[in-house]
TrEMBL record:
It comes from Orthonyx spaldingii (Chowchilla). This is WSCD1 protein. SMART domains: WSC. Belongs to the WSCD family. It holds the Pfam family WSC. GO terms for molecular function: sulfotransferase activity.
Length: 575
């Protein structure tokens, strides 16, 4: 009996020890997982800073309680790295100067830590604004019901908008009303579609069950389902043609009825009458010749490339006197050209891994917009920018090495990162414009402008001191380590959009039609053109800054010519 009791006691002790060991192991594993996730969140929230941004990063850490503010008031030597006065580099005639190479590894690690920090800071505040708005916003349109949404054969195909974080019913209605559409439809809680024809296939009301991303308690369609509203007529004084843009005077095509699919013949036709007629027909162009109004798209027959002297079209507001019918007035209606807006991921993995590389502020987002609409495929990103993803760049969330995107955005310039790509489109912009654009993005987001206080602070000269050298080193390192490069200058792309875009598309080994390229030209600005009050006659660069930047320009120009590329455009020449 005693022996059996002893065995039982021994077994219980072993079991107790085993349970204790398993509990401790479980707690340790959970702690490690939590630490790893925290690290990933920090890394995702901020990437890509130069050495001279050490103090702003530490200031942010102080704000959230990671660092004692007193440490910032009395920084040690390590916190003052890169905060010296502007210094001119000793130029080296070699291809990759020592003053750039020596800094590259240090800068490369720090750049990744802040690059999208300001995006993540701004979005929570904006979301909070939507939460407060839901109690006061009223849906002024008339709810028409729940309808079937077929992405391949859409009825509401006049315009498409995405906001994967802040979409509301009112936001969609306003966007469609601004473009003179009759109906606004919402799907998947975040997608907005506009049109003038009500979808034919109705669905059960309960199938529209997706909550709006920016407005709790409101329904924004569902999976393959649209919540459709009839948009309220614009209030008096806010006429439908307020967004009509004059495109110019052009020679009329030989057969207008074959060129344009819709027409209206009426005595004393006006711009307003023709624009409203074409808007209701969902065409982006309104063309007026004498008493005739035509609606359509830019095409090979009518590409809108070679405008004529406006004297050939006398009377821009009343077209009854256009010279002998040989010329016509062309207006852009509020309707979006949707022939090139549908995009998707590659159906099979790409065999060639292509980078879309640029210095920050050089127009990478705009170039991605052009490439996506020209090819019909999403572009990826080495980073994750929530603001871009929310506006429809769905490749942002796809892993950058998935090879499901047509090319991958990157601002990296290290040897290891460059050699991972088989080829690259290297986008270069005037450093003066790039520095201003990136400074605006850093302090006011993708669409705003930095304040006078930002420009007059010590942060601006520190920014120029660090980023000017990064602009140069980025080009030099890609010239040195890139395997197959297509050099595209931002200014050339802006001035000659179709020819340059053709080069880019061919480099990506994609075949596109001329009509699709013309559609891209018609939608050239996208959703990321800065708006608001822009400072006039503003010169942020001191002579000392210009001397510094000009030396970098000469170095890059020499390196490009040394690799048998054309040099920098003339406007880059030191001023």
């Amino acid at each position: 009996m005693a022996k059996a009791f002893f065995r039982l006691q021994k077994f219980l002790r072993r079991t107790q020890f085993l349970l204790f060991f398993l509990t401790a192991a479980y707690l340790m594993a959970g702690s490690l997982l939590l630490l790893q996730r925290t690290r990933l969140v920090i890394q995702q929230g901020s990437r890509g800073t130069p050495a001279n941004q050490a103090l702003p990063v530490l200031d942010e850490m102080s704000r959230i309680g990671i660092i004692d503010p007193q440490t910032l008031q009395n920084p040690g030597p390590r916190l003052l790295v890169g905060m010296d006065a502007l210094q001119e580099p000793a130029l080296d005639p070699r291809h990759s100067p020592h003053w750039l190479t020596s800094r590259n590894s240090e800068l490369r690690q720090l750049r990744r830590r802040w690059f999208h920090r300001f995006t993540s800071d701004q979005e929570p505040m904006q979301t909070a604004g939507f939460k407060a708005m839901k109690h006061t916003t009223e849906h002024k349109g008339t709810y028409m019901g729940c309808f079937t949404h077929d992405s391949r054969e859409r009825t509401l195909k006049g315009a498409v908008f995405y906001d994967l974080r802040k979409m509301t019913v009112a936001h969609c209605q306003e966007a469609c009303a601004e473009r003179a559409y009759t109906y606004a439809g919402l799907a998947y809680g975040a997608e907005c579609y506009c049109g003038n024809t009500l979808p034919a296939a109705a669905s059960k009301p309960e199938e529209c069950n997706s909550e709006c991303k920016g407005e709790k308690g409101s329904v924004c369609g569902g999976v393959n389902r649209l919540s459709v509203y009839r948009v309220e007529e614009l209030r008096a004084g806010a006429r439908r043609w307020r967004n009509v843009i004059y495109r110019g005077c052009f020679r009329a095509p030989e057969n207008l009825t074959d060129t344009f699919p819709a027409s209206l013949i009426q005595p004393n036709v006006t711009v307003e009458m023709c624009s409203e007629f074409c808007s209701k027909k969902e065409f982006p162009l309104a063309v007026i010749r004498r008493q005739e109004c035509y609606c359509g798209y830019p095409t090979g027959r009518f590409p809108l490339r070679d405008g004529t002297d406006g004297l050939h079209c006398s009377g821009t507001r009343n077209a009854s006197s256009t010279a002998e019918g040989q010329h016509c007035l062309v207006y852009q209606t509020p309707v979006q050209d949707t022939r090139c807006t549908d995009r998707k991921f590659l159906t099979t993995k790409s065999k060639v891994f292509v980078a879309l590389s640029s210095f920050p502020g050089a127009g990478n987002t705009w170039a991605r917009h052009l490439i996506e609409h020209a090819t019909g495929y999403y572009t990826g990103s080495y980073y994750f920018d929530g603001a871009l993803y929310n506006k429809g760049f769905k490749g942002e969330k796809d892993h950058w090495r998935s090879r499901r995107t047509i090319c991958v955005k990157t601002h990296e310039s290290g040897k290891t990162e460059i050699e991972m790509f088989d080829s690259a489109i290297l986008l270069i912009r005037n450093p003066y414009k790039s520095l201003v654009a990136e400074f605006n993005r850093k302090y006011a987001g993708h669409l705003g402008y930095a304040t006078d206080r930002n420009w007059k602070s010590k942060e601006w000269p520190d920014f120029v001191n660090s980023y000017a050298s990064w602009w140069a080193s980025h080009v030099l390192e890609w010239l040195k380590y890139g395997k197959r490069l297509l050099i595209v200058h931002y200014e050339d792309l802006k001035q000659s959009l179709i020819p340059k875009l053709k080069e880019m598309v061919e480099f990506l080994n994609v075949t596109v039609t001329e009509d699709r390229l013309l559609c891209v030209e018609n939608n050239r600005d996208g959703n990321f053109k800065r708006s608001g009050a822009k400072q006039k006659n503003f010169e942020p660069f001191t002579q000392e800054m210009k001397d510094l930047i000009n030396k970098y320009i000469l170095t890059v120009d020499e390196a490009l010519r040394g690799r048998n590329f054309s040099g920098l455009p003339r406007e880059y020449v030191p001023r």
